[in-house]
Amino acid sequence: MKKICIITGTRAEYGLLYWLMKEIQEDVELELQIIATGMHLSPEFGQTWERIIEDGFTINNKIEMLLSSDTPVGITKSMGVGLIGFAEAYETLKPDIIVVLGDRFEILAAVSAAMVARIPIAHIHGGELTMGAIDDAIRHAITKMSHLHFSAADEYRNRIIQMGEHPKTVFNFGSPAIDRIKKTKLLNRDEFQRAINFPLIKKNLIVTYHPVTLENNTSQEQFRELLNALDTLRETHIIFTKPNADTNGRVIIRMIDEYVKLNPDKAISFVSMGHLLYLSALQFMDAMVGNSSSGLTEAPSFKIGTVNIGDRQKGRIKASSVIDCIPSSKSICQAFSTLYSNDFQQQLLQVNNPYGQGEASVNIKNILKNLETKRLLKKNFYRIDS
What we know:
It is a single chain. The chain is an alpha/beta fold. The protein folds into 2 domains: about 1-175 and about 360-375, Glycogen Phosphorylase B (Rossmann fold, 3-Layer(aba) Sandwich); about 185-350, Glycogen Phosphorylase B (Rossmann fold, 3-Layer(aba) Sandwich), CATH 3.40.50. It is built from 15 helices and 13 strands. The strands form 2 sheets. The chain has a 7-stranded parallel sheet, with helices on both faces. The chain is globular and about 60 Å long. The model has no long low-confidence stretch (mean pLDDT about 95).
């Protein structure tokens, strides 16, 4: 059987890969391999590898690479440790192809080791822009090392081809995030409130804010501006989801903990909600607030607003439900005013998600299953003017 190895390092990435993993697992002609790494293995970030097991999967290899440091030196050392771990894992598992998603430093280590091991690489969510984060360069580097590409929009597919990848290897099936939304039986309002032990009221917001990794030490200042803006809201409950293991992310975690401690009646926080609780939450929110890609890819499907702060997602395709603002309390407050205006609330009813309509996972699985992977290794540079 063809051995397809899925690599996952974060809770969010796993949620996007879940249905593809299920499709591969249930295909009798394919063997699913799973490598868990990064935040999945960290107690600080919830040891979310356990959720993978609870979902009925077998983890074939765990690669410990995340050091207890969010400095540039610590992140770089983590990548080095990851390179060693992935090299050893590939030698043991001998996959026919690896599948990665996105743009994080753990995935760059995984892909670099696979390239040297001459293992074909399939990349999901390439061709996008996030000009405020180092992820932007990492994503494009992964594209050039990959052999199959599954973009989430035509604009992104065209960008991958512009980078020299042959059109026959670049597919736009939309984002697997839409599959996750459509195939998950979500909790109703009462079930959700009981599950998180926190009440919803008339106004509710979910907040996820990550460091802007191409800026130097702005996390504390920018997140303080966001908290100041949240303090101006009345009769509003807030659900925080904590940031990823990015440079300077721990200062945001400390500030969330302090805010929730001071405001237990209106705020709650989670290291990791899991995809069922997270998607169930989005049903009942007025907006996704912060700078997470989820505000662009998933929130529009729930007909809710997104208050997108700063430059982390700069360059990505955005639905009409996204309100951009700069990381100042004044600008964020103006965005809240827009969010709750009658005109904007009416506009939300007509929002279309630009990241597809679903079925990405089964389409990706079929390509992985039917293509002869060994022929993918030698690539020519495709010229768009030829």
